[in-house]
Design brief:
Helix content is 48%, strand content 12%. By secondary structure, the chain is α/β, with parallel strands linked by helices. Strands 6-5-4-7-8 form a five-stranded mixed β-sheet, sandwiched between helices. The protein is globular and about 105 Å long.
Length: 706
């Protein structure tokens, strides 16, 4: 099979779909564009599959190139055989190719290479013929060194031969993986003050079933010098296996020396490298799963339903430096900034209450967004008391990454005259109004919805999270007249130059047509094609400009409306929607000589022009009174928001300072393999209190009513 066939088989799709994606990518098409506007070519593959094709094809091409290089290098030594060539071409991993190439590789100075220089290779070959007549003394005599040195050198050569045998290495690696254990112990004199790694002080888990989060935890403990991590496996069994394969004549007088060479090969050469490979495989697998969890959490967080058309007050809690308040109009523009000191050390509660009430009355504040950092619990109690008897509601907002954004060049450019804390209050308020637009300003790694995010490959993590943000931004689309440079940077095809062109144009006047974008600096035909479908003009001259319909399909949309006797200016009306809902897409696609994918997308958009997918989601939980751990009772039913999902469960915000944990075993009456199969970040869930630890201020929750 060629690489395209291998890829199609691995992904469970057709070769023609792989070919279509690779062709489009080679032409400069972006993943969001292909997923949205080239469904007819790909068979409606989504962004995840398209990205997999791109990544895995690159790996397979690199693998093929390495195979070709290795075959060439071995042929140059005139040592290639048909069997070896077939084995190399059959490899599915780079490490397998390297194992086959190992015997032919130019080696640096080794004990074996030194022995070969001494002319001891013939002795090693004689020993591996397992003679029965004679003795080691006679066999090893006549060389340039004494008998003892000669035997020692020959054993080094045999040990390297064994180590270079790809078949033996493959067996040993498989044996350790399938039957070995991943273990950890606390190091002597190690100090683990907070007992973070207590469960790993004497821990063992089957390698093949090792949980990815435990692998990452043990790796971190090892890195911090607290744990000693190793692989435990049956070395005697592996030794017996090699003896059975290598020793051709058990009656030979060389057997004891060959067994010693086998042991040396295992201990000095094979085990260290194979264990490194297995540890690397475990870590890579663990990192991939952790990154997928982070991606999934981030996607759902970015898809949190925005609170539209509300005046919001962002509240950044603090003790000594005071709480910063930022009143924002429904579009996120700052109306007023204030600082109050309701907590220690000033304790100006009444004065602070007057300031807060004054701002609420002056601007008609409807929602207060309180950051969940330092002093948040005290601030929540203060706010609940201040708004008592009013229709104002509040919401606790994750501050993760707010300080990162507030100190960034972007925030300084946006609010040059404000302190970091005041910018933070603005960011907290905007996170309620439009989570996506605000969160894209922050490095995704700083948003705080992952696990072991600092322990995984940072390049891989950044690429994966960047892909996730790009996917969501393009899926929802942006208003070209109001979108920030941050969110525009994720739009398909746009560059800094084209974004600057957009911002410069709209400083003078708003865009009224997608056509105007064509004339901007940097917008080649290709850039325009890749980006324009994701840029909306809400109140433009052409009603189609506010939809996801690409300008390349405007003629098709117009033809469809002509067939249905509909006027584009009635877009969104009840009659419009009623007629469209009765269209037979298959028949109409034949009549208009187009594909069903494009036509169905056009109909969906005409039915819901410019609809924000997030509007269909649950509203955020708003509160009017504070909940403390003392208010809780076992079995109490509560509504909460999922703030983070990990491999062992989900953290749910029920209104306390710290989120409660729903352990994976409490998520369903059925067995749950992956918490992400049950809940996602941002979900509103019903939970029941099943454990209260007032001393540690920890709450255990269940999603199953007892």
């Amino acid at each position: 099979m060629n690489n395209k066939e291998v890829l199609a088989k691995n992904l469970g799709i057709k070769v023609s779909q792989v070919e279509a994606v690779l062709s489009l990518l080679s032409e400069g098409a972006t993943i969001p564009f292909i997923a949205r506007y080239r469904k007819e070519a790909t068979g409606s593959l989504d962004e995840e599959v398209i990205r997999s094709i791109e990544k895995e094809y690159t790996y397979l091409e690199n693998l093929l190139k390495r195979k070709e290089d290795v075959i060439r290098l071995i042929e140059e030594k005139d040592m290639m055989t048909d069997e070896l060539r077939a084995s190399i071409l059959a490899c599915e991993k780079l490490s397998d190719v390297e194992d086959l190439y190992r015997p032919f590789k130019e080696k640096k100075k080794t004990k074996a290479s030194e022995a070969i220089k001494m002319g001891l290779e013939p002795l090693a070959k004689k020993m591996m013929s397992f003679p029965t007549n004679g003795s080691m003394e006679v066999l090893a005599s006549g060389f340039s060194c004494d008998v003892e040195k000669a035997i020692e050198g020959a054993k080094y050569i045999i040990a390297e031969w064994i180590s270079d045998n790809a078949y033996y290495r493959k067996y040993i690696k498989r044996e350790i993986w399938n039957h070995g254990f991943f273990t950890s112990k606390i190091k002597k004199n190690a100090v683990d003050e907070k007992h973070v790694y207590q469960m790993y002080y004497d821990f063992s888990e089957a390698i093949r079933y090792a949980k990815h989060y435990r692998v990452l935890a043990m790796n971190r403990g090892e890195k911090e010098g607290i744990l000693s991590v190793s692989l435990d496996f049956d070395k005697e069994h592996i030794l017996e296996y090699l003896e059975s394969k290598i020793i051709k004549n058990p009656n030979s007088f060389v057997c004891n020396d060959v067994v010693e060479a086998i042991k040396d090969s295992l201990k000095r050469l094979i085990y260290p490298s194979v264990e490194r490979e297995i540890r690397a495989d475990l870590t890579e697998n663990a990192e991939n799963k952790a990154i997928l969890t982070f991606q999934d959490n981030l996607e759902h967080l970015l898809m949190t339903k925005p609170v539209k058309d509300k005046v919001v007050l962002g509240f950044d809690p603090a003790f000594r430096t005071g709480c910063k308040l930022a009143v924002l109009n429904p579009y996120g523009n700052v109306l007023e900034i204030a600082t109050i000191y309701p907590h220690e050390p000033k304790n100006e509660k009444e004065k602070s209450k007057e300031v807060l009430k004054s701002l609420i009355e002056k601007y008609g504040v409807q929602i207060i967004a309180i950051g969940n950092g330092t002093a948040s619990r005290e601030s929540e109690a203060f706010v609940a008391d201040a708004i008592s008897g009013t229709p104002v509601l509040y919401n606790l907002v994750s501050e993760a990454g707010a300080s990162v954004y507030s100190a960034s060049p972007l925030a300084i450019k946006e609010f040059p005259d404000l302190t970091v804390e005041k910018r933070s209050a603005i960011s907290i308020g905007r996170r309620v109004q439009d989570p996506l637009s605000e969160l894209v300003k922050i490095d995704p790694k700083s948003i705080g919805v992952g696990e072991y995010q600092h322990d995984v490959n940072q390049k891989e993590l950044a690429e994966a999270l960047g892909f996730t943000v790009s996917k969501i931004v393009n899926e929802i689309g942006v208003n070209i007249n109001t979108a920030s440079s941050s969110i525009l940077s994720y739009i398909s095809g746009l560059t800094k130059k084209t974004i600057d062109s957009i911002l410069k144009f709209r400083e003078k006047k708003p865009f009224v047509s997608r056509e105007e974008v064509k004339s901007l600096a940097g917008f080649s035909d290709k850039v325009y094609e890749q980006s324009i479908g994701f840029l909306r003009i809400v109140d433009g001259e052409n009603p189609l400009d506010k939809t996801r319909i690409h300008p390349e399909s405007y003629a098709l949309a117009t033809a469809l409306l002509g067939e249905l006797n509909l006027d584009i200016h009635d877009l969104g009306s009840e009659k419009f929607t009623s007629v469209l809902s009765q269209v037979d897409v298959s028949d109409m696609s034949k009549k208009l000589a187009t594909d069903v994918y494009t036509l169905q997308d056009i109909i969906d958009e005409l039915n819901h022009p410019g609809q924000d997918y997030r509007d269909k989601l649950d509203d955020i939980v708003l509160k009017s009174d504070v909940l403390t751990i003392d208010d809780l009772k076992l079995g109490m039913e509560l509504k909460g928001t999922v703030r983070n999902v990990t491999s062992f469960g989900a953290f749910v915000d029920i209104g306390l300072h710290d989120d409660g944990l729903v352990h994976i075993s409490k998520m369903s009456k059925q067995y749950v393999k992956n918490p992400n199969d049950v809940v996602s970040v941002g979900d509103i869930v019903t939970v029941y209190v099943c454990g209260i630890d007032k001393e540690k201020e920890k709450v255990q929750l269940s999603m199953v009513k007892e």
